[in-house]
């Protein structure tokens, strides 16, 4: 009986299974184009399997998990300065090359435990640092001499529109390069590459805390405003093309 993908089947393990099965059937003779086709096939399977209505129990579980992490950090002397549920205005592409999903690149960060796409804390913090580059808040985010006083948690989806999928397949049209004038534009045939994105309208839980044990370099209100600015500008890859923008009021 063939293994079928569902929210109860770990996507990272399923990728390995599909790759090994494909390589065995091809007796190891696998080209880059073969991998691209297989990757697109798996992405379409994920899109079909991860319908929003089937994910509600998982969304509730991950939201409760974040609650527990926030409470644990508060018990250690941290205070929440930003804890919001924000929806995506545009599709999200994040970590186009994830170590968990290679060599079949999904084009998205996928948590192997929660079995959901997510925004790594490092990506969020990098975007916040960019917004804070000319402010006193930059010191609170950590320097070479001093550790950060701010804790940014990984952000997970907790809601997505009914009758839709949590993720959707998008296409990258790669550029081609003329080789010493031998390849003209009409002769080129670049192969479109598929990538998985989180669908617009998906809501993420974004939680950020700061230590109460030392005086911050900037006010909590200022840091919270910088977080909102970073989310409004976009998180992840291809933000210049409009990806990863949150609906921040």
Structural description of this entry:
This protein has helices at residues 11-25, 32-49, 56-75, 121-131, 137-140, 220-233; strands at residues 78-87, 110-111, 116-117, 150-152, 156-159, 167-172, 193-198, 203-211. It has one domain (11-241). The model has no long low-confidence stretch (mean pLDDT 85). Strand 2 (110-111) and strand 3 (116-117) form a beta hairpin. The radius of gyration is 21 Å and the shape is globular. It has 249 residues and is an alpha+beta fold. Strands 1, 4, 5 and 8 form a 4-stranded antiparallel sheet that branches. A two-stranded antiparallel ribbon has the order 2-3. A two-stranded antiparallel ribbon has the order 6-7.
Please summarize what this structure is:
The chain is α+β, with helices and mostly antiparallel strands. The protein has helices spanning 11-25, 32-49, 56-75, 121-131, 137-140, 220-233, and strands at residues 78-87, 110-111, 116-117, 150-152, 156-159, 167-172, 193-198, 203-211. The chain is built from 6 helices and 8 strands.
Helix content: 25-40%
Which whole number gives the mean pLDDT? Answer: 85
Q: How many domain units?
A: 1
In terms of structural class, how would the helical and strand content be classed? Answer: alpha+beta
Task: Tag the structure with descriptive keywords.
6 helices, two-stranded antiparallel ribbon, 249 residues, four-stranded antiparallel beta sheet, 33% helix
Secondary-structure blueprint of this entry?
Elements lengths: L10 H15 L6 H18 L6 H20 L2 E10 L22 E2 L4 E2 L3 H11 L5 H4 L9 E3 L3 E4 L7 E6 L20 E6 L4 E9 L8 H14 L16
Antiparallel strand pairs: 1-8, 2-3, 4-8, 5-8, 6-7
């Amino acid at each position: 009986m063939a293994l079928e993908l569902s929210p109860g089947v770990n996507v990272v393990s399923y990728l390995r299974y599909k790759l090994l099965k494909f390589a065995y059937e091809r007796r190891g003779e696998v080209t880059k184009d073969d991998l691209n086709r297989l990757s697109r096939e798996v992405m379409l399977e994920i899109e079909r399997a991860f319908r929003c209505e089937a994910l509600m129990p998982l969304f509730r579980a991950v939201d409760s998990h974040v609650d527990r992490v926030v409470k644990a950090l508060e018990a250690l002397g941290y205070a929440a300065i930003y804890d919001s549920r924000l929806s995506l205005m545009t599709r999200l592409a994040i970590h186009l090359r994830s170590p968990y999903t290679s060599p079949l690149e999904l084009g998205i960060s996928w948590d192997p435990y929660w079995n959901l796409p997510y925004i790594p804390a490092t990506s969020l913090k990098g975007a916040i640092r960019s917004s804070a580059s000319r402010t006193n808040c930059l010191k609170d985010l950590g320097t070479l001499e001093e550790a950060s006083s701010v804790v940014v948690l990984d952000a997970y989806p907790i809601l997505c529109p009914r009758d839709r999928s949590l993720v959707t397949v998008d296409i990258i049209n790669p550029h081609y390069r003329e080789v010493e004038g031998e390849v003209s534009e009409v002769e080129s045939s670049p192969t479109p590459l598929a990538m998985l994105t989180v669908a617009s309208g998906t809501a993420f839980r974004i939680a950020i805390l700061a230590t109460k044990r030392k005086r911050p370099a900037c006010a909590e209100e200022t840091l919270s405003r910088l977080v909102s600015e970073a989310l409004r500008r976009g998180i992840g890859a291809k933000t210049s093309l409009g990806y990863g923008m949150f609906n921040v009021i």
